[in-house]
Amino acid sequence: MTLSTAISSDNELLRMMLLDAKAQRNAYKPGPYWKRKSQSAAIQIERYGLADFRGTTSTIGQSYADSVILDVRHNLTGGPRRPFRFLLDSVPPFNRQFDAQVALTTTYSDEVRRLRRVLFNDSPRVRELLGKYTMPPSLRGGCLEYIEVDGDKVAMHYLTLLHEHDLVAEKVKFPAMRSFFEIGGGFGTNVHLLLENYPNIRKVVYLDIPPNLYVGTQYLKSFYGDSVRDYRKTRRLDRVQFAKNDELEILMIAPWQIEKLDLGVDVFYNAHSFVEMPQFVVANYADRLARLAGFESTTVVMLSYDPFDPNTTFDPALLPGFFPSKSFGRSTFTALDGKYDRILFTSLR
To answer: What CATH number does domain 164-347 carry, 3.30.70.3450, 3.40.50.300, 1.20.1270.10, 3.40.50.150?
Structure first.
């Protein structure tokens, strides 16, 4: 089967997710950190599609993608904010003022990207990672944050996650794993890297809130086609299970579907998003995970910010307490671009 390199639109799937999400209890709805971003992103996805969601023409991927946010007007979509968007887009002198701001910000952004490319290109760590792992196509979706290595363009976001993965892999034996479950997978980068580097991993569960789930679904479909089982295919099932075979299978599920999972996984993984949720939401996820078949032998990996912002997140030191049956180790390491440290908790097996 020949796969398209484009990220296709499926607005019917998006609307289906969003409609079903409205009927769920609060444990499965976006918390304060994500509520407004999710509402804005849903409107922009229908308006712009996903061809440039990592570029400059929207804020669809704000807070989880490597998009370049230059124009705050993109966030003034829908509801009572819509008249302000019209005002700032179309009415002088407001539109001229904001257009001038965007032009100036673009100049600064271009220079920052140039300097980041210098930083990454001069990093021995980048060469080490690219020599150790397979780097799949990484620019799909209009990525502008990339470097060129030996003539190949490589997304810095992919390199950052590969750096994280390499440090996690010192504790977790991914070559021995067959199944993987991630909550809050961004737009699918981590799953993409795992599948391209570990052919032994054949079964994946990917859970996220709509519309982030939609973005991840369509992104991964552009690489793996029908191996991605989207929400449309599972929403009516009483039990969501892996097929009993060795074919690649990526189950893209909404938060409320965790109650219907009837399977086991070798690794559960969360990077950064747990601390962006209300604590009762994390507690519910932890309880549901504990009910999965064989969870006592599942390796749990959790990454987070250090330092964290108490106004938008909670202390990552609390994360192990949500899994009282697990014994955890802890380590701290620095991100590839040096922006902040991350705290890593892994269960001890």
So the answer is: 3.40.50.150
Residue 178: which region, alpha, beta or left (left: phi > 0; alpha: psi -120 to 50)?
Answer: alpha
Classify burial at 275, counting beta carbons within 10 Å of its beta carbon; exposed 0-12, middle 13-18, buried 19 or more.
buried
Q: Which of these, 190, 223, 214, 215, lies nearest to 204 by C-alpha position?
A: 190
Helix then strand then coil, in percent of the chain rounded to 5, is 45, 15, 40
> What are the tens digits of pLDDT across the range 21-72?
999 999 999 988 888 889 889 999 999 999 999 998 888 988 899 988 777 6
pTM over 0.85: yes
Distance CA 272, CA 34 (A): 13
CB-based contacts of 116, cutoff 8 Å, min separation 6: 145, 147, 156, 337
Instruction: Please report which helix (H) or strand (E) contains residue 42, including its range.
Output: helix 35-48
**35 closest CA partner among 62, 10, 14, 9:** 62
Residue whose pair of structure tokens reads 């192990």 in the numeric block: 320
Parallel, antiparallel or unpaired: strands 203-207 and 249-253: parallel
